[in-house]
Amino acid sequence: MNYRIFKMINQLAGNYRILDNLMIFISKRARFVYLIVLIVLWFRKDFYKKMALFASVSVSVTYLLSMVIKLFFFKPRPFLKHGVYLLPPVPSKKDSSFPSKHTALAFALAASVLVYNRILGWSLWLLSILVGFSRILMGQHYPSDIIGSAILGNVSAFIVRQTEQYWKPFVTRTLLSIKRFRSSFRGL
Q: Quick one: CATH architecture of 2-177?
């Protein structure tokens, strides 16, 4: 079933130049959308800074969990096991197919923002779905890798939210340090 769904999506690659270019663009450039969102949030009021910091914590936790999973679990990418239409950039053959870092990190950030701002969060969540879809269409991940990575990102964001009291001192100190830094420059 996993391979059948993969093949159904991957067979779209190479047939429509616009779709290929759009999927490559989303896969390679969506991370900049997320980065811009974090930067914009950072330069707003403290509530939004807090949102950006908690989203950054969720992304960091997700990244670390992804690295740990890849240390202990290797799943060959689709293009190593099957004849697929592979769109560039071609990932390393040594890199595990699960989890998809692109997808896991995108969902972690989107889920973190969703807690604070529904419209922005849902928009980022929809973009995360497109990121995952692009990774399948490009021949780099199976659908189960994308679903598992989406779960990993969402669960990481949920755990960070549920353990907020442990992260709060870090967030509070960071915000206080920024205020002190700004006030020291205002006095000059």
A: Up-down Bundle (1.20)
